[in-house]
Amino acid sequence: MSLQYLGLSEINGPLIVLDNVKDVGYEELVEITMKDGTVKTGRVVQIDGQRVVVQVFEGTNGLSLKNTTSRFTGKPMELPLSKEILGRVFNGSGKPIDGLGKIFADKMMDINGLPLNPVSRIYPRNYINTGISSIDALTTLIRGQKLPIFTGSGMPHNELAVQIVKQAKISEGDGKNFAVVFAAMGVKNDVADYFKRSLEEAGVMENVVMFLNLSNDPIIERILAPRCALTAAEYLAYEHDMHILVILTDITSYSEALREFSNSKGEIPGRKGYPGYLYSDLSSLYERAGIIENAKGSVTQIPILTMPNDDITHPIPDLTGYITEGQIVLDRDLNQLGIYPPVGVLPSLSRLMKDGIGDGYTRKDHSSVANQLFACYAKVQDARSLASVIGEDELSDLDKQYMEFGKLFEGQFLNQGMNTNRDILETLELGWDLLSMLPKQELDRIDSEVLDQYYNRERSMKRFKIAERSIIRELAMDGE
């Protein structure tokens, strides 16, 4: 029997409080009917005896303490799902906003996800090709991994997200069982339009499910958006055997909504005002990535988060780093030089990379090339530091070679533009051409047999002869 409760005890921001409520549970869906017949929905977020706090998804504007009717449905919020969701656009609470009508559901799924036995997880193998050399070669995205992008205000992370959606593909087959779920939280109208327009113009929208929560939408919807997106991803992965890449932007907007919601509940704040349960809340999102035993599909995550003041020790990137398997860090100095994507190589890391590349996945020399590029670029930073003290003219010949390597590495390898899509073999060949600029004895991270097979100084000099002069000229003009 379903009971209805007339009146409210309290209204506080996005929350309403009811007294003398029995037999309800956390996350239970509530239907709230206003005096004029308008129905809003909410969920139970706190229970204190018979006192229940309900979070209203659409906000509490227009609600009355006396004339509001509440009905508890006895179930959590569920998302209607079918394979028709591919190519559709939804708001943060999973309602269609593309004018194409409702979804005729094959299945209803709890947006909080299904209980997952950790023993049933399979170790992620194989990679997802993004077409971006700095990611594919040096911080490879492994299928089933959660690999966040750490960025800063004003950096081109939106452009990078769109490029990944347009170019990403799985390594084998023609990609028919690969799709992207894209969730944007707290974005402005022009940014949301940019996402939709870019994907439609690229002709990839039919393989994308998009959830858009705008900055003027209720903050509660911002908390629901990633959960709806991940529920859609799990449905496609485990019900239809698809490999799903989930891109969540911006986790910082999500966390700030969580902080605002926590403050409205009167909870004691933790670091920088964020709730003490921020770690476990982020875990409830990130840990929904992976590969499950006996399932043919997989869920891979790329959460994008803006670091306030470029501070990587801020609670959001700090906690995210504990939960996820690495990070891709965008570098502001590279961005100011006009390099796109401005991936900071040295602080970036993919912890699962070693087991998803190499012979049988990419190419047997991949690991060696990545390690050597890391090592050489680290020496470039040392040479630049020395040059800032004694001047570039006073450097040794070897240090000058490293300086030239650094210019070409940033100008040719990292910098590839938004419309360049490189496959993994092209990326590895470019890496070898860069390494072949340096003396063979300097490449001490590569096995001699592999080095003999791929090292080609003559081809390297021929490839970069014109490009080298143009880059030096551009850098000189920038200096003036």
Automatic annotation (TrEMBL):
InterPro entries: ATP-synt_VA_C, ATPase_F1/V1/A1_a/bsu_N, ATPase_F1/V1/A1_a/bsu_nucl-bd, P-loop_NTPase, V-ATPase_su_B/beta. The keyword Ion transport applies. Residues 131-350 form the ATPase F1/V1/A1 complex alpha/beta subunit nucleotide-binding domain. Signal peptide: none annotated. GO terms for molecular function: ATP binding; proton-transporting ATP synthase activity, rotational mechanism; proton-transporting ATPase activity, rotational mechanism. Keywords: ATP synthesis, Hydrogen ion transport, Ion transport, Transport. Belongs to the ATPase alpha/beta chains family. This is V-type ATP synthase beta chain.
